[in-house]
Amino acid sequence: MDYQNRAGSKKGGGGVAGFSETNADRRERLRKLALETIDIEKDPYFFKNHLGSFECKLCLSIHLSDGSYLAHTQGRKHQTNLARRAARDQREGRTDTLLLTNGTSETAGVGASSIQVKKNLVKIGRPGYRITKIRDPVTRQQGLRFQLQYPEITTEIKPRHRFMSAFEQLVENANDNKRFQYLLVAAEPYETVAFKIPNKEIDRRPGKFWTHYDQDTNEYFLQLVFKVENNDRYNGVPGLR
């Protein structure tokens, strides 16, 4: 067989590598280079999601393995975004600690105080909770009282809450759940919990809606009541607007 005019014409040698083989070899070389220079556990943009994939919070990219993520950190997109982030922080007068490609930290910006990039904490599970249905004795408004326990929470962190509409969440079909909204409560290192409640307007007057965090027992309380229409049944009821 004539090998004279073929690519890789030496007999017994492999053919010319294709695009996939070249790309795989490049990514492997970048991964080895990153392993020698970067401590992935100290990378503030590294995040492992609940599906086992790896995310870059700077570039909003998803990677199937840590090797793929490390190769990404050596690429043009990640390095460009690092430079843009440093330039923006300097322009805004902030001082952030950035992780460079050689694994060292550098201070960017000219601000007076240092803002440390927050590292992802390992979630330790969901908090215990108790939900009680309530009714205002005067206005007869229906409501809910939430009690959540955070025994392992640190003293520097306090639970926070917010309300989410059915169109913000991605778990259920929003069109089928327009009658509901979601109450989210977050406190690290615990997982964020969400409660599905009726999609009614919440009465935020003093005494109707309140929150309290007991630092002695590490318990978080939240109470809410729903507004009612001012129809004939409630005319003349004191305290109802």
Automatic annotation (TrEMBL):
Q: Which PROSITE patterns match?
A: ZF_MATRIN (PS50171)
Instruction: Locate the region Disordered.
Output: 1-22
Domain Matrin-type as annotated: residue spans: 54-84
Q: Which domain of life is it from?
A: Eukaryota
Q: Where in the cell is it found?
A: Nucleus
What broad class describes the main subcellular location of this protein?
nucleus
Q: Which SMART domains match?
A: CactinC_cactus, ZnF_U1
Keywords in UniProt for this one?
Metal-binding, mRNA processing, mRNA splicing, Nucleus, Spliceosome, Zinc, Zinc-finger
Which PANTHER family does this entry report, sorted A to Z? SPLICING FACTOR 3A SUBUNIT 2
As for family, the record states:
Belongs to the SF3A2 family.
Name recorded for this polypeptide: Matrin-type domain-containing protein
Q: Species name for this entry?
A: Myxozyma melibiosi
